[in-house]
Design brief:
- This protein is of the alpha+beta class.
- The strands form four sheets. Strands 8-7-9 form a three-stranded antiparallel beta sheet.
- It is built from three helices and nine strands.
- The radius of gyration is 20 Å and the shape is elongated.
- It has a domain of 89 residues: 2-Layer Sandwich (Hypothetical Cytosolic Protein, Chain: A).
Length: 139
C-alpha cells in the first residue's frame, strides 16, 4: 500500500488500457472499456455492439444451422458478423463460419440471412462502410 502525506494508506491506481507488444490492447481490470470483435466476413474489427453474434445449433441427423444471438446470451462458441449482406456472403464464401465455430461440413445460414435482410431495410449504410467514400487511397 502507498501512503499519502497525511499518513493514510491509499489503494494503488487501477490499471488503464495500455497497448502491449503485438498490437493487442491490455484492458486490465477496467470494466467499462468497449469490447472489440472481428467480423468473420470482412475481417474488420469493430465494437461488439455493432456486430451480430452467431452460434451453431446442432441437431441429430441434420445439417448444423446458424442461429443469430443478438442479445449475446446463448451458450457455446460464437462468431461475429456485421449486419450487412456483403459481410454475410463473404463469410459463407470463405467458409469462415465453419472455421471459427469449429463445425465440420456445410452449415445452414437461412436464419441469419433472414435477420440480416430484415435489418438491412432499416439501416441505410453499414457503420463500417459509412466513411469509405471519404477515404481516398492512392496506389
Amino acid at each position: 500500500m502507498l501512503t499519502s502525506p497525511a499518513g493514510r494508506s491509499k489503494a494503488p491506481a487501477r490499471p488503464v488500457a495500455v497497448a502491449s507488444l503485438g498490437g493487442r490492447l491490455n484492458i486490465g481490470s477496467q470494466r467499462n472499456a468497449a469490447v472489440v470483435r472481428t467480423c468473420v466476413g470482412c475481417r474488420r474489427r469493430d465494437a461488439a455492439a455493432e456486430l451480430l453474434r452467431v452460434v451453431v445449433h446442432r441437431s441429430e441427423g441434420s445439417v448444423p444451422r446458424l442461429v443469430p444471438d443478438p442479445q449475446r446470451r446463448l451458450s457455446g462458441r460464437g462468431a461475429h458478423v456485421h449486419h450487412d449482406l456483403n459481410c454475410l456472403d463473404q463469410a459463407v464464401r470463405r467458409r469462415a463460419f465453419t472455421r471459427s465455430l469449429k463445425v465440420e461440413g456445410p452449415v445452414d445460414v437461412a436464419a441469419v440471412r433472414a435477420l440480416v435482410e430484415s435489418e438491412s431495410v432499416e439501416r441505410s449504410a453499414p457503420a463500417h462502410e459509412a466513411g469509405r467514400d471519404r477515404m481516398k487511397t492512392t496506389r
